[in-house]
Amino acid sequence: MVPAPVGDYFEAAPGGSPANVAVALARLGVPARLLARIADDMLGRRIRDHLTGNGVQLDHAVAATEPTTLAMVAVGPDGGASYDFRFDGTADWQWTAAELDGALDGPVVALHSGSLALTMPPGAAALRELVSRAAGSVTISYDPNCRPLLMGDPAGVLAGVHELLAVADVVKVSAEDLEWLLPGTRPEQVLEDWIARGPAVVAVTLGGDGVLAGTASGVRSRRPGVPVTVVDTVGAGDTFSAALLAGLHRRGLLGAAARPALRAVDAETLDALLDEAALAAAITCSRRGADPPTADDLESRRSTA
C-alpha cells in the first residue's frame, strides 16, 4: 500500500523486492523467472497479473493457500521510504524444499535473492539451501535489502549476510543497509571486507551520492549519482540490481562458465555497468512506486543527457 498522489490515502501497488527485480529485468529485455508463493486471494491475483503483464515467467511459482503479505509505505519529504508490514502466517515465508525442486531447471544463468525472503522462517532455510546449491552452476546475485522492523537483531542478520557472501558473485547493498548492519563503519571499509569474503563484484549504493564498487581482481570505482527530481525511492535499489544484472547479461558475464571473466572485469566495463544501473535507479526514483524503466526508457534518457 503506497501513498496516493493526493490526500491522506493509500493505493494498492504490487511489489516486493525480488518481484521488483524480476519486473525490471523483464522490462530491460532479460528473460526472468520468479520463484514466488503467490496467494489465491484478491491481492495475490493482482500480483500475478502485474508480473505476467510485464513478461515475468511464473511457471515455477507456487499457488499458495495462505494470504498475501501487506506492506504499507510512508514517503518522507526527501522521497525516502519507510515500511510497516502485515505478515503473520502469510504466503511468502512458507517455502519447503519440495516446492523448490526443479527451481533452476532450464537455461538459468543467474539466481538473485535477498531481503526478507532469506531471513524469515520457516522458508528462509529452504531458500538459503537453494542459493548454496545453485552456486556451483549459476551466478549468485544478493542484496541484503534490510528491513529492520522484521529482521530482528542486526548482529544476527550480519552473520547470515556473511554466510551468503561466501557463495555470492554479485552483491549490491545500500549505505542505509550498512548503517543498520554496521553503524559507524565507512562504506569503503565494508567494501574491502565484503570483497575479501568471496564475491566477484560488490556495489554500495549511496543514494544521490552515487555508487562505490569493487571487484575481486582489485578494480575500485566511485561513480556519481544521476540528478533527478525524486518522487519516491520505492524500488530504486531493486532496479539497480536488475540493471546491473541486465548489463552483465548483455556482456555474456553471467553463468558458471563466465565466472572467471566476471571476476576479472576491467575498470571501463565496471564503470559502464554502474552508470547504467545508476541511471535506471534514478528513473525509478522519478516515478511513483516501484516502476522501473524499459530498455527504451534508458536509451531515451541517455540520448537526451
From TrEMBL:
Domain Carbohydrate kinase PfkB: residue ranges: 9-293
Superkingdom field: Bacteria
Keywords: ATP-binding, Kinase, Nucleotide-binding, Transferase
Gene Ontology molecular function: kinase activity
Keyword ATP-binding: yes
Family matches, as InterPro entries: Carboh/pur_kinase_PfkB_CS, PfkB_Carbo_kinase, PfkB_dom, Ribo/fructo_kinase, Ribokinase-like
SUPFAM superfamilies linked to this entry: Ribokinase-like
Classification via CDD domains: bac_FRK (cd01167)
Recorded family membership: Belongs to the carbohydrate kinase PfkB family.
Annotated protein name in UniProt: Carbohydrate kinase
Organism of provenance: Pseudonocardia adelaidensis
